[in-house]
């Protein structure tokens, strides 16, 4: 109890000094708990939606790994309905006609499709829909010219009953009038949904009134879902393998599995950034307790003198850390719930509606947050507590401070240098690797070892780097600058720990900046080198192009030629007797002009002749393929063909790396029309000297298709840059938490340092140092520490990024581009961060009463 009372008294006595450490714990725990609450809420929301839409037993086409991806909705024969209705135990059969290969546009030719990545769904209205939605305005759809729109899409795009919408589907385009608005009974996760009567959905979405996309079966009273599934499977007989028959529970589980893969990526990515923030927070806590122990040296000595054991002193500091962890964690749990609500609001603004009323907080979430906060804080305080226990009573009463161990410092420096050297060797090995998988392992090892090495060797580096920085930055400020330099060098271990916290975040920023910039530069170079087409036409939502779109593009004026590109799935048998399922790029012969793929043997133009093909260099070597060899090619759902190898393409590219080419007419010869994949992309070449006119004509030709974008090469380069930039900005935003915690560490170190140097500050003021000079000294000390951390972080990050680029070069991204404007901006920004971090400590130092400061023990 004495230890607890002493710890509680010390904690409350130094609550101001503990505040920033508590904030660091709070932020870290909030990020962890917020991530868990957010993902659990999303999972619960989708679970409720899946449960409300699943039939007792569902029958749909079986998805096969080697299936031909046509881009058209998969269907089942309408005749299957009677067969399913005759199964014993089936009370009702509800056929569904659904397609996600549609785009919906309003009267202004503006797309109503979600921008969040959620699908646009067209489906038939029947009794099963009433489980999840209800019509709150208008009436059900009747006839081919009517449709019902979901309420969220209607609100977002200001659509009301009576408005006309254009539906762009694979079988063709058609207009409908909105006759009703349907509101979800559960949360709509962001999809745009349009409902039609069943015959319209069959004809307009699936292309046939003799087909459905799936069937929903209702079990008769007393018949279990599992039993009904068994009966349905038995009734299907030998053709059961062509169908996926699932109970409601299995359908829900399958839907959860597909969603779970996306949510898991999001969850673990967010938790990864939270882990970085926790790691940075450890440095802050270690520094805080180290300085508090140093400032209470005499107090600890008195405790030892009156009988306290080393263990009791050690335990007293650890109990303070426990209290700090509990307070910070409790605040963090509350902050995590608030963060989850904020993320839900953000997703709502992006189109994914999540109801905050369905916020899901599992019991494990606060327990996890509390455990992380407490364990991390106690572990971080262990070393300072151990040092406190080593203070001898006589040394403490002489104000000798915590024991210094020069031998330990030398051992630490040696370990740090060894780890750094090992990390550098691993990075060098990764840069010289010939295999991306092996190189990735070496890269990960190199990042880990070099990071730990820099952290451990930080105090040694501080002595050198801070002096160099001071010579450049501080010496111009005269005696004040020299005082700031000496203060930064006074305790290299403390300076190294403070700078290391900032170093971690900035190293990741620099590495990602180098990788992102190199990717953009490499892609731009490949476009300039390989793409000869003037225009690239594709769907913004990555869906294939409908025949109507391709026809419209081909009809545009001022165009020399149009090239179609699609991919077919085929089983290829090579001369060595091996067979493998491969993706075969089926293109128009003009593709040889539009994309200048380098060949090591033969000519690509020859590969686009009838019954000809090309193979990539690596594939040819692995299977002993030579020019003129005839390969057996069986296109899935089509007839077998014998294709002659007319070209071998180089693997030294990032565009279509590893692609096999054949003429699109050849693919159409061996595939039935209904199994031929839709065109994935169209390239166009302007007529000589008519580029501007061709651009205008192409854009006019697809004007009624808002999902189709016509881009020239500069537009495409900008698209790549914007996509990479958006990803990096999102990552930078997440890393900002770690940087904020690191800045709090600088603030806390300076604040405690000011308290530690109270008498010294009083003496400096007494001999003539003005308040303004005092504040400047503190600010300059902060700036040089921040710049030290930035220099280490940026240097380390650029090394990581350059190594990662060498691995990307194995995939054809061979340009290393250092984004110097970003690197310089981050370095200068670190100086600003240092200035801001010193504002409060410098203000407090400047306001000290000189006489009281000198009289301080």
Range of strand content: 15-25%
Low-confidence stretches: 400-404
Largest sheet: 10 strands, mixed
The number of distinct helices, counting runs of at least 4 residues, comes to 28
Nearest-integer average pLDDT:
86
The radius of gyration computed from the alpha-carbon positions, rounded to a whole number of angstroms, is: 34 Å
The backbone outline, from C-alpha atoms, is: globular
How many individual β-strands?
A: 23
What class would the helix/strand composition place it in? alpha+beta
**Share of helix among residues?**
55-70%
Measure the end-to-end span. Answer: 29 Å
Question: What count of domains describes the coordinates?
Answer: 5
Keywords summarizing the entry:
857 residues, transmembrane transporter activity, 10-stranded mixed β-sheet, Macrolide_Exporter_MacB, 28 helices, alpha+beta, membrane, 23 strands, ABC transporter permease, 7-stranded mixed β-sheet, transmembrane, single chain
Can you offer a commentary on this structure?
Belongs to the ABC-4 integral membrane protein family. Residues 57-79, 96-129 are annotated as: Disordered. By secondary structure, the protein is an alpha+beta fold. The chain folds into 5 domains: 1-57 and 250-403, no CATH class; 58-249, no CATH class; 408-456, no CATH class; 458-531 and 714-857, no CATH class; 544-706, no CATH class. The protein contains 28 helices and 23 strands.
